Task: inverse folding
């Protein structure tokens, strides 16, 4: 995994601001389960599980909230 997979949390538009939380969520899964073949095997199970699919946006929303709070923190101290 390259060290620069997340170059910035600051985005130019509100719509673009959804990409970093999704990327953070995906990278967390890759860090926790580093075996790509096993992740692919699990995908076939959770892609048909409504509860798992509903949980995904919740994780992204949590990441989004964290990023928004962090960006506001840094803007306020500059």
Result:
């Amino acid at each position: 995994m390259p060290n620069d997979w997340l170059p910035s949390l600051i985005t130019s538009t509100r719509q673009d601001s959804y990409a970093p939380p999704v990327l953070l969520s995906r990278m967390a899964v890759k860090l926790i389960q580093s075996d790509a073949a096993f992740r692919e095997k699990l995908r076939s199970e959770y892609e048909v599980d409504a509860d798992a699919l509903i949980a995904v946006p919740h994780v992204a929303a949590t990441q989004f909230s964290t990023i928004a709070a962090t960006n506001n923190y840094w803007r306020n101290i500059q």
